Amino acid sequence: MGLIDQLLKGDRKAAARAMRLVEDEYPEGREILKRIYPYSGRAYVIGITGPPGAGKSTMIDKLVKHLRKQGKRVGIVAIDPTSPFSGGAILGDRIRMQEHSLDEGVFVKSLATRGHLGGLAKCTDDIIQIMDAMGMDIIIVETVGVGQDEVDIVKTADTTIVVTVPGLGDDIQTIKAGVLEIADIFVVNKGDKPEADKTVRELKIMLDMSAPREDGWKPKVYKVSALKDEGFEELIEGIYEHRKFLEKTGRFESYRKDRLENLFHIMLKDKLANQLINKMKEKGIYEKIINEMFEKKIDPYSVVESIECKCTVKGEEI
Amino acid sequence: MGLIDQLLKGDRKAAARAMRLVEDEYPEGREILKRIYPYSGRAYVIGITGPPGAGKSTMIDKLVKHLRKQGKRVGIVAIDPTSPFSGGAILGDRIRMQEHSLDEGVFVKSLATRGHLGGLAKCTDDIIQIMDAMGMDIIIVETVGVGQDEVDIVKTADTTIVVTVPGLGDDIQTIKAGVLEIADIFVVNKGDKPEADKTVRELKIMLDMSAPREDGWKPKVYKVSALKDEGFEELIEGIYEHRKFLEKTGRFESYRKDRLENLFHIMLKDKLANQLINKMKEKGIYEKIINEMFEKKIDPYSVVESIECKCTVKGEEI
């Protein structure tokens, strides 16, 4: 049985191998993505973000346990800021895997923030496709909510959760501000702390004060405690409620279509630019143009403006 | 006298207007960039980043004052995380401008992290080009060092400075790790604090322990105090020392060429993809392909793979 068949049957080793091929940009990786494409799109994607120190990992571990109780198969894509000293991701697959290593219904994959030729967003989506095709019902994408890239990635989820904790200082405000607008659900973590109720109240007031969202969804606030194992059933209900809202309003499909279109554009850009640059290099004019631009003899804007292409897409002239 | 002539003479209003045209993606903006291109490339670009709370703004204000004493004209591009509530940037041009509003030798421009069609990196570079053409000797690009995008932007500077302060907690470590490898110079800010020397020592030890850099530069550590106005002359000497190193090793030119090439690729991607998508839309096949992909009848990888283009660049067939 081939790798793809094994993957579609949910084989973990096949999935891990497929992910490595995709991550390292092997042609075999793209072949796999092509072949599994018809089998993807079934999983529900939850994006979870929040500032460092919000206890996201512990909260996600508990959330996964409750989802498992409901019989859901769960994939986790953990996007870790790359550490230049360890050379790899800060959280490791191994550490996170241990928790659920005996559970066939959980699959964890860490992605470093650096070194993705096609971009981090593209690679994250590729991994989601594979987890989806291997039969995961719910896929959680976890990021440290500090960068625009990460915000953009987590925003592409069906439901986006922003995690915070009581008593995060003012320094965090600048970070938090950037992710507030993308939250479908807020989770106040460490809900056992005495100040948790105050944080919940403040969040609710802030949400009441802010302009209504275009899509008509009113973000909800949930309080959870990993320590006391409280609030997770309610949170999961909240996620399902948001899903129902998306489906009822037709946004479930339209958002996913937007996302597909966006990924298509990323792929298109890379393909077209690489094709042209390679041809320019073959003809020996690439270096010449770069040098002329560097010497200020021509400007890059005029060069780019001058480009005219005739293309065929699937054999059809455009 | 036209806008461009005024801009090239250093007129502040003309510069501000040009920046708005470029930022809002008006065709006139691109025309300006084309026309000033031959006059850019003279300014020295310093990237300054560091975690929230490191006191970057105060430190930069002092640095600017010392650079002004040396007669340098200084441009500052402040990249501010966008606040969804204020609708704009967190720091405002106005606040920052007040400090130097009477000084013709300083020009401050804030850029929000959101809503740049061609990308934040491209827009930052456009603003740098304008500041350069208006006669700024040194251009400082300031970011809150929290995201990959920001790291990528600040990395394109000639000299990159990472600012830290004594006693930043563990939460910050994950952020700091991501920017450590890009620093040509470390600045320990708030050097008047008793723990500052310890932070300097720790940084030096960490640098000694880490692998030597490919380019052979050994990052330096400087201690400054905005409060006591100490250490800035030495820091400026350090910046000049790094510049000399770049020039001596030929890296000054090669890094700038890499950066030009990178921006050329960004422009190329946008142009080629937009051209093709528009033509597909005209022919009525764009929607059809998106729908077929969405319905899993075809996969995006095969569509993109099938594309073949024949292009002309500056009238020449490629």
Features:
homodimer; 318 residues; alpha/beta; Rossmann fold; 2 domains; 7-stranded parallel beta sheet; two-stranded antiparallel ribbon; 16% strand; globular
CATH topology description of the largest domain in chain A: Rossmann fold
Structural class of chain A comes to: alpha/beta
DSSP helix fraction of chain A = 40-55%
Q: Count structural domains of chain A.
A: 2
Topology order of chain A in helix (H) and strand (E) letters: HHHEHEHEHEHEHEHEHHHHEE
Give a short overview:
The structure is a homodimer of 318-residue chains. Helix content of chain A is 50%, strand content 16%.
Could you characterize the architecture of this molecule?
- 2 copies of one chain form a homodimer.
- With 318 residues, chain A is α/β, with parallel strands linked by helices.
- Chain A has 2 domains: 39-249, Rossmann fold; 261-317, no CATH class.
- The first copy, chain A, contains 13 helices and 9 strands.
- In chain A, the strands form 2 sheets. Chain A has a 7-stranded parallel β-sheet, with helices on both faces. Chain A has a two-stranded antiparallel ribbon with strand order 8-9.
- In chain A, β8 (308-313) and β9 form a beta hairpin.
- In chain A, α2 (12-23) crosses α3 (27-36) and α2 (12-23) runs antiparallel to α6 (120-133).
- The longest helix of chain A has 32 residues, at 251-282.
- The model of chain A is unreliable at 83-94 (pLDDT under 50).
Draw up the topology in text.
The structure is a homodimer of 318-residue chains.
Chain A: H1 3-8, H2 12-23, H3 27-36, E1 44-50, H4 56-69, E2 74-80, H5 93-100, E3 106-112, H6 120-133, E4 138-144, H7 148-155, E5 159-164, H8 171-180, E6 185-188, H9 196-209, E7 220-223, H10 232-248, H11 251-282, H12 286-294, H13 300-305, E8 308-313, E9 316-317
Parallel strand pairs in A: 1-4, 1-5, 2-3, 2-4, 5-6, 6-7
Antiparallel strand pairs in A: 8-9
Helix pairs in contact in A: 2-3, 2-6
